[in-house]
């Protein structure tokens, strides 16, 4: 069934930015110790994988005896009242398949062909196009313990454009390939979060935008459900980070800007400032320093420092 999006949950994280060596010069304009670089909860908690059907088994041939693991505790939703009426044209003939599943619809040369309805012995129901005993074309598949899929099929698997509706209210609309979300798609969690962008084999992968229900959002690169590469993270109070990520944590070069205009330009590792960096207060006063594991270890009065990598702005 649809999984809860943990990103919607909020909690506080203690800031690790050490400003003791900068207080005297930057005064009240220096970042507050309680004002965290790490208050983006997403960098501490991993993204939930969107629910998928990887644990399900579905035979390509209607007569093939395959069924789902109905004892899987993760698959808790059941089909209710899915008895759909067939038109006279669709009613056609009835066939009992080798595994005990029942098909009713058009039959040509002893095989299901055309429009029909299939009652699988595991409780699933399919209604739509079938070619030579293979689910192919347009149809609706009602999983006994899972979502309802409505859309295009190829060789018994969802392929093309489709819509996946999960029992908890989560919905995915977009492209499928070989039975999995792949290409462009929009996923809306029942808790209010949403992601729109690229997918690969049921995972958020490529370019896309993730929005939280509390107003935060991330736009950028993803790798297997994690922020990875260049991206921009924004908070509802105006703070934002534009920089590089590795596996959901800031890593590489990035610029963090507070709502009042203060900013840190510099390098990060494992979600913390690490390497050379430049602090700028809202009046434009600068402090150049060196950070290790989030701690400022040295600083200087250098002002003519260009820390932003060449071509960085153009790559945004």
UniProtKB/TrEMBL annotation:
Pfam families linked to this entry: MORN (PF02493)
Record keyword Isomerase present: no
Source domain of life: Eukaryota
Gene Ontology, cellular component aspect: cytosol
InterPro entries for the chain: MORN
Keywords (A to Z) from UniProt: Repeat
Database matches in PANTHER family: RADIAL SPOKE HEAD 1 HOMOLOG
Stated name of the protein: MORN repeat protein
Source organism of this protein record: Paramecium pentaurelia
Taxonomic lineage of the native organism: Eukaryota, Sar, Alveolata, Ciliophora, Intramacronucleata
């Amino acid at each position: 069934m649809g999984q809860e999006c943990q990103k919607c949950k909020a909690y506080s994280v203690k800031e690790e930015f050490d400003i003791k060596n900068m207080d005297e010069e930057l005064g009240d304009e220096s970042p507050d110790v309680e004002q965290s670089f790490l208050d983006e909860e997403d960098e501490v908690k991993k993204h939930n994988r969107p629910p998928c059907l990887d644990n399900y088994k579905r035979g390509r041939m209607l007569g093939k005896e395959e069924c789902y693991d109905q004892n899987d505790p993760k698959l808790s939703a059941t089909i209710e009242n899915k008895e759909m009426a067939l038109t006279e044209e669709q009613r056609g003939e009835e066939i009992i398949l080798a595994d005990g599943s029942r098909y009713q619809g058009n039959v040509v040369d002893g095989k299901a062909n055309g429009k029909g309805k299939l009652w699988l012995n595991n409780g699933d129901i399919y209604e739509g196009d079938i070619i030579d005993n293979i689910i192919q074309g347009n149809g609706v598949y009602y999983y006994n313990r899972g979502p309802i899929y409505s859309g295009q099929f190829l060789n018994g698997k969802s392929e093309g454009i489709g819509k996946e509706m999960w029992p908890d209210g989560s919905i995915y609309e977009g492209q499928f390939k070989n039975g999995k979300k792949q290409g462009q798609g929009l996923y809306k969690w029942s808790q209010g979060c949403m992601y729109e962008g690229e997918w690969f084999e049921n995972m958020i992968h490529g370019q896309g935008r993730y929005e939280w229900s509390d107003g935060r959002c991330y736009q950028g690169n993803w790798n297997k459900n994690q922020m990875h590469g260049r991206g921009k993270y924004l908070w509802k109070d105006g703070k934002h980070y534009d920089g590089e990520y590795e596996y959901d944590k800031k890593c590489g070069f990035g610029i963090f800007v507070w709502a009042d205009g203060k900013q840190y330009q510099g390098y990060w590792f494992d979600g913390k400032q690490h390497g050379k960096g430049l602090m700028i207060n809202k009046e434009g006063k600068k402090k150049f320093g060196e950070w290790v594991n989030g701690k400022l270890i040295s600083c200087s009065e250098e002002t003519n420092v260009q820390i932003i990598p060449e071509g960085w702005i153009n790559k945004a």
